[in-house]
Predict the structure of Flavodoxin family protein.
Amino acid sequence: MKIVILTGSPRKKGNSNYLAEQFAKGANDAGHEVFVFDCVKQKVGGCLACDFCGMNGPCSQKDDFTNILRPQLETADMIVLVSPIYYYGLSSQLKAVIDRFYALNGSMRNKKSALLVAMADTNNATASSAVDYYHALGRYLGWKNVGEVVGKGLWGKTDALGSPAANNAYELGKSL
Ligand SMILES: Cc1cc2nc3c(=O)[nH]c(=O)nc-3n(C[C@H](O)[C@H](O)[C@H](O)COP(=O)(O)O)c2cc1C
């Protein structure tokens, strides 16, 4: 499979990026091709709702979404959303990228998917809005969910190292 991983944390060597790294390692070990797009580092504007694309065409914004990510998404078999939990949801940088799916809505359908999130809280309920959102998005786009990893109790930048969540992320990638 060709797997596109969308990472949404500004902490370069932080927890969710570590989960993404472990997932990618597992997927590579299982023989899959991985492309990682850093939604924070790359320049991606929010959807302008100009409808220039008509939900299936060129986007009016010529940024890193259009120039770098779009061709990868069009040919991907699987999408992995990766984010810190920010105020009970996904990071705004990842959400901005998801909103840009609008220009290729049809091409985003029927892919496999996974969700990897990191949060400070140890209560699963804190991630429930993000997980529910991911499921709703997947239902709409006809995605086949292969799994979710919720890294709990991860506050410091390197807390994910050696955590059960990191191992779960690796195993999820390896199981594909
Ligand atoms: C703006 C902001 C909002 C946050 N909101 C939450 C929250 O609602 N619940 C929580 O458990 N942790 C929250 N955190 C903590 C992060 O989710 C936690 O540190 C996580 O491990 C960060 O992942 P990262 O290292 O991949 O950036 C927040 C952190 C920031 C900076």
In short: The chain has one domain: 6-174.
